[in-house]
């Protein structure tokens, strides 16, 4: 039981943060998604498989998962298959836990989340999307957001390739 609790503790913090700061947001999408947590060793295995060419590149749509939360380090990525009318294969929301002034029932400096919304197509090329999940006074930098996503995408792509048909 404690093993599961440890794995989902960050997700619990994210849900609490959303309830406190963005109660009208997509909280149910997080609660209804399959939660996948990768350890440092699993991340290394994916990196080695990519480097060694053991993961064959396939279109994003070949991934069997429709909706999941991908967790590694201090990052959670909610990944959902896009509507059939969309030019993108998946839409995603990166939630990165960081230190900044978070709005809770009392204002205090503490852990909070920084959100980046994006989509990616069959070739895993990203398109940054607008997000309404920004706290008052929070500085947003699109170039930095793209840089963060570009660091996450190889791991996300490797995972999706590993579970593709």
Describe this entry's structure for a reader.
35% of the residues lie in helices and 28% in strands. It is of the alpha+beta class and 165 residues long. It has one domain. Strand 4 (90-102) and strand 5 form a beta hairpin. Mean pLDDT is 83; it is low at 1-7 and 101-108.
Low-confidence stretches: 1-7, 101-108
The biggest sheet amounts to:
6 strands, mixed
What gross morphology would you assign?
globular
Which class of secondary structure composition applies to the elements?
Answer: alpha+beta
Order of the strands making up the biggest sheet: 1-2-3-4-5-6
**Roughly what is the average pLDDT, rounded to an integer?**
83
Topology, element by element:
Elements: H1 2-21, H2 27-31, E1 34-37, H3 40-51, E2 67-72, E3 75-81, E4 90-102, E5 108-120, E6 126-129, H4 142-162
Parallel strand pairs: 1-2
Antiparallel strand pairs: 2-3, 3-4, 4-5, 5-6
Summarize the structure.
The protein has helices at 2-21, 27-31, 40-51, 142-162, and strands spanning 34-37, 67-72, 75-81, 90-102, 108-120, 126-129.
Features of the shown structure:
165 residues, alpha+beta, 6-stranded mixed beta sheet, globular, disordered N terminus
């Amino acid at each position: 039981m404690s093993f599961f609790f440890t794995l989902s503790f960050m997700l619990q913090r994210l849900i609490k943060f959303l309830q406190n700061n963005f109660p009208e947001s997509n909280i149910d999408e997080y609660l209804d998604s399959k939660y996948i947590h990768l350890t440092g060793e699993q991340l290394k295995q994916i990196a080695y498989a990519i480097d060694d060419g053991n993961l064959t590149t396939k279109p994003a749509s070949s991934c069997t998962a429709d909706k999941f939360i991908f967790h590694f380090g201090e990052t959670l990525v909610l990944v959902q298959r896009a509507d059939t009318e969309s030019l993108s294969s998946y839409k995603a929301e990166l939630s990165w836990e960081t230190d900044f002034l978070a709005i809770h029932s009392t204002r205090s400096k503490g852990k909070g989340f920084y959100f980046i919304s994006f989509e990616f197509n069959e070739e895993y090329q990203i398109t940054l999307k607008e997000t309404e999940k920004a706290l008052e006074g929070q500085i947003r930098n699109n170039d930095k957001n793209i840089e963060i996503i570009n660091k996450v995408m190889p791991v996300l792509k490797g995972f999706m390739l590993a579970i593709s048909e």
